[in-house]
Amino acid sequence: MYGWTGRILRIDLTREKAVIQEYGADFAQKYVGGRGFAIKILWDEVGPEVDPLSPENKLIAAVGPLTGLPGPSLGKMVIAAKSPLTGGYGDGNIGTMAAVQMKKAGYDAIVIEGKARRPSYVYIEDEEVEIKNAEDLWGLNTFDAERQIRGLHGWDTGVLSIGPAGENLVLYATVLSQDGRAGGRPGMGAVMGSKNLKAIAIKGTKSIPLADPEEYRNLARQCYDDIRSKPNYDFWMRQGTMATVEWCQENAVLPTYNFREGVFELARLIDGYSMEAMKIRQRGCPNCNMPCGNLVIDVERRNSEIDYENVAMLGSNIGIGHLGKVAAINRVADEYGLDTISLGNSIGFAMEATEKGLLKDGVEWGDYRRVRTLVEDIAYRRGIGDFLADGVMRMAEKLGGEAKKWAMHVKGLEISAYNCHSAPGMALAFGTSPIGAHHKDAWVISWEVKTDRLGYTKEKVDKVIEFQRIRGGMFETLVSCRLPWIELGFSIEWYPKLLKAATGVSLTLDDIFRTADRIYALIRSYWVREWGDKWSRQMDVPPARWFEEPPTKGPYKGTTLDRQGYEQMLTQYYQARGWDERGVPRRSTLESLGLADVAQKLQQYINLQP
Asked: What is the dihedral sign for C-alpha 200, 201, 205, 210?
């Protein structure tokens, strides 16, 4: 094969053994790579009987047929496992040299199972695989651990590591690389920690075989030129995703005070223009010519790489209107290996619980000093930090009463930085995201604001599915970044051309979208299998706050989601996907997508409709 390596590296930490598994063209074309490979492996090998933090869970790092090649933002990988935070399918996308080195080492996926008998890290160099002692690395933050590993194996080594949060099994611990590149929101760092796995270090020396190298080089050059020619390119290079702070404030969707409000009185102090005044340089993923990482100096005089999501969740959502302080919290979260979105949600929930008198020795809105200390307490599960380390769903269960109404999550994953009191289409995107509430799969809010903002229409349902096919399907399997397309208008028509030149396989966009539908149906089947009879459509409904507690400020004050309208859109979504009224894929849908074996297996856990 071209583009694909045709090889999966399997590492058993318990037995300290590694084997290479080969696969064929049919598997490659059916699941493409990245998320497709990850969910197929998890479906086949990690069932409902497996505890996410047990040795039987499997951590999967997977790339795609374009990973590591020249071209727009093609230095990414997917990291997946059964999630300890949600109990369902979990993954994250991370831009890192580890993705490029993994492809050059000759692997499309790495599957890690078992548990090392002592803190360890895995070193991979082509066919050489070693499980090395990491006792001297255990306890180090992600920045220091990576520096030590690269110092040992060379500065071109790709490294994925965890910090104290992963070691202490914080349920939203992430995997970090290159001083702030993070992935795996649903607890992939905790899965590594449960396996005594501090890091994965990868170095490859091989070339990536291409079907038509000259054509591919020409296409890649054209792609880079096309991106640089876009009208918004210069402004993007100035602010990147940080421009979203101002946009969200203007459109009353900026998460504020645990998503109670959509506007923040201090938004100007944490927006893209404030960032520009502090910015020292940019940083991006491998092969990227529109870097999204903006490096600033925080109040502790250290570098911090910030973007919209972490600034909104650690700024407006918890009442901190000082970008230098927000950046300092973000830097510490990256060092400890904490997901900044779930962290901002958990702290915001604790602040509201404190305000309501439900939490003693809690934390007040905007209290930077207390938050700064609390982040460390969460990473080490000390005191109240142990309470916050399990995420808002479990925090609400422990508090009881009405707390679940303002625990901002879907399926256990905390909502990312868009308030949806007045954005029903984006609320549906959060509700139906395949990993829980995340914007990555269908960021429709910009389109929605420009069209029928408050409508509950079939057009919005279709747009959510369209975006899921592109963002969560195509980009998560190739594996590539969505930002050139969604931010600058880079045409998705380029990707089948790149794929053809790289692999020799002709797949139209319709073919790619059908693959996306197959993957979404398989992920949904995984969730349903985990829940069995307890599964219901309520798993796809966002928190009660958006339906029952209107914001008191801004142009959309007094507005809430309409429950009947949302349920109507959810039904239309299921119908368009070929799922039944419970949100369970129909037998005929699975069979039509080439998943007849999945239907047969799923029938053992829940009654499938024809």
From this structure: positive
Among 307, 275, 278, 314, smallest CA distance to 293 is for 307
* pTM, 2 dp: 0.98
Distance between start and end Cα atoms, the chain: 37
Q: What are φ and ψ of residue 582, in 5° steps? A: -90, -10
Cα–Cα distance for residue pair 178/68, rounded to 1 Å: 16
Q: In which residue are the tokens 């230095």 written?
A: 75
What's the average pLDDT block by block, 10 residues per block, for the chain (610 residues)?
Answer: 97 98 97 98 98 98 97 95 98 96 98 98 98 98 98 97 98 96 96 98 96 98 97 96 98 98 98 97 92 95 96 98 98 98 98 96 97 98 98 98 97 98 98 96 95 97 98 96 95 97 97 98 98 94 98 97 98 98 98 98 96
**CA-CA distance, 452 to 426, in Å (whole number)?**
12
Task: Please give the Cα distance from 510 to 280 (Å, whole number).
Answer: 43
Edge-to-edge strand order for the sheet containing 76-82? 17-22, 7-12, 109-113, 59-62, 76-82, 89-95
**Paired strand residues for 173:** 338
Q: Are 437 and 83 in contact (CB under 8 A)?
A: no
SS3 34: coil
What single-letter DSSP state applies at residue 526? Answer: H
Give the domains, in start order, of the chain with CATH numbers.
7-203 (3.60.9.10), 240-410 (1.10.569.10), 418-489+508-610 (1.10.599.10)
